[in-house]
Structures are given as C-alpha cells and as structure tokens.
C-alpha cells in the first residue's frame, strides 16, 4: 500500500528543472503549498554551462538547479527526489504516486518534465553529445565560434541549421548524405561558401575523447572540430495519458503538450511549461514559462476559493435569515 503523505497541496509540480523550479518559486512566494517532484534527469546534464541566461551566463546546470532549489525551499516550498509512476484524479484532487510508494494529493498539477532528444543514429554522436556534438546555435554557437563545423543533414529542412551556424564560423561543411539538393539550395550554400560533402556518414572520428572528424562509408575522413545535428525532440507525456494528456506531433517529428498562451492544457486543472510544451525553449524561456504558468495557476486557485467563499457566505446568510424568521 502506498504511503499517504496526508495534506492536499495546492500544486504539485512534476519536474525539477528551470520551468518547474521557477513555477514553484512563484507559487511559494504566493504562499501556496507547492511540492516539486524531481526524477533527476535534466536534458542539459551533458552541457558544461547554461548560456544566454541573463546574469547567470555560463552557470553549470547542476549549480543552477541547486540555486533554484535553495530559493524554493527558502520560501517554504517542498522538493522531493523521486520518480512519479502514476497519476490519477478523484473529483477535484490529483493523486500522484511515486516509485517508492509515497502518495501525494494536489488541487492543481503542473507538468514540467521536459523532453528527450532522440539523436541521429550515427556512432559517436551520443558519446560526444553536449561536447563535440551540438544542436543549438544560440546555446553553443559562441563556444564553437571559428571552429570547422560539420552539419549532419538527415533531411532537406536541416540545411537551415548550416545557414544559422554560418553566423559563428566561416568554415562550415554540410554532410548532405543522400539528400538531393535543388538548384536554389545549391545557390544558397554557395553564396555562404558552405562546402557540401555527399555520401553516407559512417561514424564520427574520436581521438582521446575529442572529436576530430567525420568518416564516410567510402572511407573518406573529413576533419572537423564540431558537429551540429538536429534531434527529434519528444516531450515526456506517457505518464499523463491516464488523466487525458495526449502528445501533439510537431512538424519536425517531435511531440509536445499543447497549451494555451498561459500554459493551461485542455485538461482542467493541468498546466504545462518548459520543454514539455515548448520544445524549442531555452533555459531562460523555460524559466519564464514556468513563472507565467504559476501566476495563472495561483489566479485560478484564487477564483476557485472565491467562488467557494461566496457560496459558503450565501449559505450562512440563508441559515441566519431562517433563524431570525422563527
């Protein structure tokens, strides 16, 4: 039997990254009882630093989370390390079960579980992920500036990544694989002096844990310092199917949780923020979305409490009037 932790919290946040902690901080400061459940699987764990985050540029992912946790706890929020294995709903209360059999109840639920990057099936990509292999020019472009950057293109739309990385380096190589480039695409690549290498990629060349090149199936090795790839970004949604949350497919092949402008899903009482609902969000954007969702969760709770208070007041007044009329 699961261990019932008693009190019904105002909000349970599933996910302890930038979005989840930012939301919890806002809710705790609003004097809400809020619990963050963190499975400890951040998407940016392989990265050396978080970039583009105002006043914290370059901070390590672990340090950012540690700071965020300290702030949430400082305002009375609660953080539980654990994995959610089941979520159900009884009337207006969500029931959240953790793998260690702890059981939590909450009036509102925020999904901030992030996403999983499905990497290209090329040997060496996973081993170098977050170091020699990058995906986002705005996250990593400055760090790989003036490198010789190889862009692995698995489909025509990924040419756009080569054009973007050209902003940070004049030495870009597009590994086109089996893509048939049309006249316009070749003219664009030529205009940016982007070299094109045809033929299937066999693997990445790694020497003493450092990326050194890209090996083609015909035996050629093209030297590069960095490889840029596109990933299929898939939000973690399976856990929430039982309460009606379904993934929405993205044109890129990924999936996300669809919300309105303030993070509310189609399921009453459930919000989503960060990469779970916006697969392109960087840490700064995820944190902002978490704070925004939290503000609207709090407002939603306030209006619910107001309606109950009005009904209770009306009931008390009716009883008093009946007593006076006796």
TrEMBL record:
* Organism this protein belongs to: Rhodococcoides yunnanense
Q: Which reaction does it catalyse?
A: [thioredoxin]-dithiol + NADP(+) = [thioredoxin]-disulfide + NADPH + H(+)
Write the lineage as a comma-separated list. Bacteria, Bacillati, Actinomycetota, Actinomycetes, Mycobacteriales
- Which protein is depicted? NAD(P)/FAD-dependent oxidoreductase
Q: What InterPro entries does this protein map onto?
A: FAD/NAD-bd_sf, FAD/NAD-binding_dom, Ferredoxin-NADP_redctase_2
- Spell out the Pfam families in the cross-references: Pyr_redox_2
Q: Which Gene3D superfamilies match?
A: FAD/NAD(P)-binding domain
Q: Which domain of life is it from?
A: Bacteria
Looking at the record, the residues that make up the FAD/NAD(P)-binding domain are 10-144, 195-290
Q: Which of UniProt's keywords are assigned here? A: Flavoprotein, Oxidoreductase
The keyword Electron transport appears for this protein: no
Q: Where would one find coiled-coil regions in this protein?
A: none
* Presence of the UniProt keyword Coiled coil in the record: no
């Amino acid at each position: 039997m699961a261990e019932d932790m008693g009190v019904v919290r105002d909000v349970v946040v599933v996910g302890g990254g930038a979005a989840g902690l930012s939301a919890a901080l806002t809710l705790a400061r609003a004097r809400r009882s809020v619990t963050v459940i963190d499975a400890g699987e951040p998407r940016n764990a392989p990265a050396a630093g978080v970039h583009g985050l105002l006043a914290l540029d370059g901070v390590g992912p672990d340090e950012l989370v540690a700071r965020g946790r300290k702030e949430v706890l400082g305002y009375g929020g609660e953080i539980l390390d654990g994995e959610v294995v089941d979520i159900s709903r009884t009337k207006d209360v969500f029931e959240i079960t953790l793998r260690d059999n702890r059981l939590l109840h909450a009036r509102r639920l925020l999904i901030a579980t992030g996403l999983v990057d499905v990497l290209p099936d090329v040997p060496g990509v996973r081993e170098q992920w977050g170091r020699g292999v990058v995906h986002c020019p705005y996250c990593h472009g400055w760090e790989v500036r003036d490198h010789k950057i190889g862009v692995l293109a698995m489909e025509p739309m990924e040419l756009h990544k080569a054009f973007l990385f050209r902003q940070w380096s004049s030495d870009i190589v597009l590994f086109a694989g089996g893509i048939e480039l049309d006249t316009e695409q070749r003219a664009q690549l030529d205009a940016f002096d982007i070299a094109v290498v045809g033929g299937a990629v066999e693997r990445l060349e790694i020497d003493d844990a450092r990326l050194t090149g890209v090996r083609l199936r015909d035996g050629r090795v093209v030297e590069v310092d960095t490889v840029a790839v596109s990933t299929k970004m898939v939000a973690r949604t399976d856990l929430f199917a039982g309460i009606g949350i379904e993934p929405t497919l993205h044109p890129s092949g990924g999936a996300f949780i669809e919300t309105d402008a303030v993070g509310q899903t189609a399921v009453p009482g459930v919000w989503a923020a960060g990469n779970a609902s916006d697969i392109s969000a960087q840490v700064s954007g995820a944190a902002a979305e978490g704070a925004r969702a939290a503000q609207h969760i709090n407002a939603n709770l306030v209006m619910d409490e107001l309606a109950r208070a009005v009904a209770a007041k009306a009931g008390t007044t009716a009883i008093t009037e009946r007593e006076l009329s006796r």
